[in-house]
Amino acid sequence: MLAAITALAGAEIRDYAQRNVRAAMLVALGAVFAVAAAGYGLSALSVWLTPIYGEITTRLMIAGGLLFVAVIALIAAMVARRPSRRQPMQDAAALIGAPAALELAKSLVPSLGKTLPVALVAGVVVGRALASRK
């Protein structure tokens, strides 16, 4: 029985790995074609702009545009890597305290049993919104 489960798990892992390798190869192939298309597009732009602005100016304009895109991409990468400002402990405390507050409120005021969960959820959402503004 253990051998059958092991064989089944091995087959699933092998299938998962093959699908991921196939997907990675297709993404890499797409990236190669995207880079080639961008190269041809820049070449066409160069051919089109050269009679208008001259050879050196055209090359410098294209280089400046590419540098601008690279700087924007680097800034976006730095912003994406920056850790969030929220403290995980505050979120965990809010999630742990919410059910306890709900039960306490239900025991104190029985008539609010149906509307209290809605108010609690609204309070948690507003509290998180206010906490994230700090």
Outline the structure in words.
The longest helix is centred in the N-terminal third of the chain and has 52 residues, at about 1-55. With about 130 residues, the protein is mainly α. α1 runs antiparallel to α2 and α3 packs antiparallel against α4. The model has no long low-confidence stretch (mean pLDDT about 80). It contains four helices and no strands.
Task: Record the SSE blueprint.
Blueprint: H1 2-53, H2 55-81, H3 88-108, H4 116-132
Shape: flat
Helix-strand makeup class: mainly alpha
How many helices?
A: 4
Strand content: under 5%
| Portion in helices | over 70%
The ordered H/E elements are HHHH
Number of strands: 0
**If you compute it from the alpha carbons, what radius of gyration comes out, rounded to the nearest whole angstrom?**
29 Å
Identify low-pLDDT runs: none
- First-residue to last-residue Cα separation: 57 Å
Mean pLDDT: 78
Largest sheet: none
Q: In a few lines, what is going on in this structure?
A:
With 134 residues, this protein is mainly alpha-helical. It has four helices and no strands.
Features:
134 residues; mainly alpha; 4 helices
